[in-house]
């Protein structure tokens, strides 16, 4: 079966992990904003997810890695802004 992410199932799974991590990261930031008492822990978790994303994306070819950069940058900004307000 052709894959929109690449040529192998392993590669498809790697891309889906990055996509899932991005969703998790943004969700953690949203939770931190709505639960100030838990913000420190939630933002620490978001930082770990962010680091995982960076590690995974480094394994991709340049064009594919670059396609994720806008979302990765937005997640970084969201984490930083929420840290500044907590």
Write a compact overview of the structure shown:
The chain is built from three helices and no strands. The chain is mostly helical and 86 residues long. It has one domain (9-85).
Counted by DSSP, the helix tally is 3
**In angstroms, what separates the terminal alpha carbons?**
47 Å
Strand composition percent: under 5%
Counting structural domains, the number is: 1
What's the total number of strands? 0
Estimated radius of gyration: 14 Å
Give me the secondary-structure category: mainly alpha
Poorly predicted parts: none
H/E series = HHH
Helix fraction, binned, reads over 70%
The major beta sheet can be summarized as:
none
Give the overall shape, derived from the CA principal axes. elongated
Mean pLDDT: 91
Would you write up a description of this structure?
The chain has helices spanning 9-34, 39-57, 62-85. By secondary structure, the chain is mostly helical. The protein has one domain (9-85). The N and C termini lie far apart (47 Å). The mean pLDDT is 91.
């Amino acid at each position: 079966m052709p894959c929109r992410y690449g040529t192998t199932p392993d590669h498809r799974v790697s891309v889906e992990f990055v996509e899932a991590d991005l969703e998790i990261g943004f969700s953690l930031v949203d939770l931190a904003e709505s639960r100030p008492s838990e913000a420190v822990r939630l933002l620490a978790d978001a930082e770990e997810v962010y680091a995982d994303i960076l590690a995974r994306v480094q394994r991709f070819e340049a064009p594919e890695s670059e396609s994720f950069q806008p979302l990765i940058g937005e997640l970084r900004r969201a984490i930083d802004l929420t840290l500044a307000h907590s």
